[in-house]
Amino acid sequence: MLSRLALRRTFTATAFNPYKVTVLGACGGIGQPLSLLMKLNDKVTDLRLYDIKNAKGVATDLSHIPTNSVVTGFSPEQPDGLSNALKDADVVVIPAGVPRKPGMTRDDLFNINAGIVLDLAKAAAKSAPDACILVISNPVNSTVPIVSEVFKKLGVYNPKKLFGVTTLDSIRASRFVSELANTDPTGEKISVVGGHSGITIIPLLSQSQSANALSKEQKEQLIHRIQFGGDEVVKAKNGAGSATLSMAQAGAKFANAVLNGLAGKEGVLEPSFVDSPLFKKDGIEFFASPVRLGKDGIQEILDIGKLSPEEEELLNECKDSLKKNIDKGIKFVDSKHL
C-alpha cells in the first residue's frame, strides 16, 4: 500500500503538466505584467524572459515569488541569447515592439514593429518550430501574417499553432456591456470577431442577451467604444503609454487557455485571429473567431453564428480593411527575400 506522501507524489506527477513559456519583449509595458502573470500560472515551470535590456533584472525580481517555476532572463548580449530563450519552448508569447502614442497611425506602428516581429519569427522558426506562437505585437492584423510567411519560407509553418491575441477586445466588450446593462462583468461573454483594430473589430452584440436589450443608440456607441477602446487608453495616459495592463491580462488569459488545451482539458474555447477558412473565398486568409483549443493547438475553428443586419454591414466594412492589413504583412516578408 502506498504511503500518503507516495500517493501525493503520484497524483502530482499524473495531474501536473510542466510547460516552458518564453516571453519575447518581457521588459516592456505589456511584457512585465504579462511575465508576472505567467510566473503565477501553476502550469508554467520554466519561464524564459527575453528583451534587448534588463531581462536579467526582471527575471531576478520575479524569481523571488514562491511559485513552482524557474525564471531566466536572456538578452542579445549573451551568446545565443535569443535562441536559448526559445529552445524547446511549448508556448512563445510576443508582446515585443513599441506602443502606440497619441497621433501615431497604424502605418507608423507597422513600420517599426514589422521588422521586430520578423526577426523574432525567424528565431522562433529555428529554435522553437513546434511551439504555439501567440502574437500580441501590433498591428496584429499584419504581424500574424508576417509570422506565418516567415514560418512558411523556413518550412515549419503549422497553422494550428499560430495565434493573434484578440482577447482584449472580448474582455473590453464584456466590461463595457456590463456597465450599461448593470450586470456582473465576469458573467458577460461577448463574441468579438474579425480583426484587431478599428472597424475590423466586430462585436456580436445580437448574440448577447444583455447587449441585445440595449437601445440602438447605446449599441452604436458601444460598438464604437469597443472598436476604439485602445484610443481611449492612449488619450487617458497622455502620451505615457497604451493599453498595457489590460493587454497583459488578456495575453495571460489567452496563454492560459492555450496551456489548458495542451494539457488536454476539454471545452477550451477562446477567440483568436488565426489562419481561417471562414472567409478565404473573399481572399481573407486570417480571421478572428472562437477557436477550440487542444493538445495540438487549434482543434476546431468555429463559425461566427447568426448576425443581425447591422452586424452583416459591419462585416462587409471589415473585409476590405482586413484584407489590406493581411496583404501588407505578407508583402513585407516577400520584400525581405528570406
Automatic annotation (TrEMBL):
PROSITE patterns: MDH (PS00068). InterPro entries: L-lactate/malate_DH, Lactate/malate_DH_C, Lactate/malate_DH_N, Lactate_DH/Glyco_Ohase_4_C, Malate_DH_AS, Malate_DH_type1, NAD(P)-bd_dom_sf. It comes from the Eukaryota. Keywords: NAD, Oxidoreductase, Tricarboxylic acid cycle. SUPFAM superfamilies: LDH C-terminal domain-like (SSF56327), NAD(P)-binding Rossmann-fold domains (SSF51735). Transmembrane segments: none annotated. Its EC number is 1.1.1.37. NAD(+) binds at residues 25-31, 51, 113, 136-138, 247. Residues 166-332 form the Lactate/malate dehydrogenase C-terminal domain. Residues 20-164 form the Lactate/malate dehydrogenase N-terminal domain. CDD domains: MDH_glyoxysomal_mitochondrial. One of its GO terms (cellular component) is mitochondrial matrix. Substrate binds at residues 100, 106, 138, 172. Gene3D superfamilies: Lactate dehydrogenase/glycoside hydrolase, family 4, C-terminal, NAD(P)-binding Rossmann-like Domain. It is an enzyme of class 1 (oxidoreductase). The active site is at 196 (proton acceptor). One of its GO terms (biological process) is tricarboxylic acid cycle. GO terms for molecular function: L-malate dehydrogenase (NAD+) activity; mRNA binding. It catalyses: (S)-malate + NAD(+) = oxaloacetate + NADH + H(+). Homodimer. Belongs to the LDH/MDH superfamily. MDH type 1 family. This is Malate dehydrogenase. It comes from Huiozyma naganishii (strain ATCC MYA-139 / BCRC 22969 / CBS 8797 / KCTC 17520 / NBRC 10181 / NCYC 3082 / Yp74L-3). The lineage of its organism: Eukaryota, Fungi, Dikarya, Ascomycota, Saccharomycotina.
